[in-house]
Amino acid sequence: MGSLRIPADLVADMRAHGEKTFPDECCGALIQDAEGRLRIRRCTNIQNDLHRDDPEKHPRDARTAYFIDPKELLAVTREVDEVGGEIAVLYHSHPDHAAYFSAEDRARAVIEEWNEPIYPDAAYVVVSVMGGEAGDMKAFVWDDDTREYIEKAVEPGEESA
Known about the structure:
Layout: E1 3-7, H1 8-21, E2 27-32, E3 38-43, H2 47-53, H3 70-83, E4 86-95, H4 103-109, E5 110-111, E6 116-117, E7 123-130, E8 133-143, E9 148-157
Parallel strand pairs: 1-9, 4-7
Antiparallel strand pairs: 2-3, 2-4, 5-6, 7-8, 8-9
């Protein structure tokens, strides 16, 4: 299975973000610059807006789904370009559910026509938030051999610079 090492302060920040948005899902990204330093970018989950505006097209609300505000995702990608880095992690929470990579999570991470990941080098991290308290956290990374996301443990590392 292996593990994904993330600075302890960023692990704590992702957990805190999940607790803050509970009972809705949180979402965000970890951006890695050209020197390998990571920083967090919390994003806005607009799933409630999508659900309110078109419940047939978006039957789930933010308690069971997330959709990163496209303007914020664009800002993240511009920041990545500016620092010569990459999106290292995309994260979200599962309120009152385990940390697992759901069929919905996979559908949002892959271009189905080609069975290719949208962000092939990014890990997807899911934080379980039970009753408002962050618990288990797991990472999922694309495996070219199996053409699926495989689970990795999240291991808190040294604090970020």
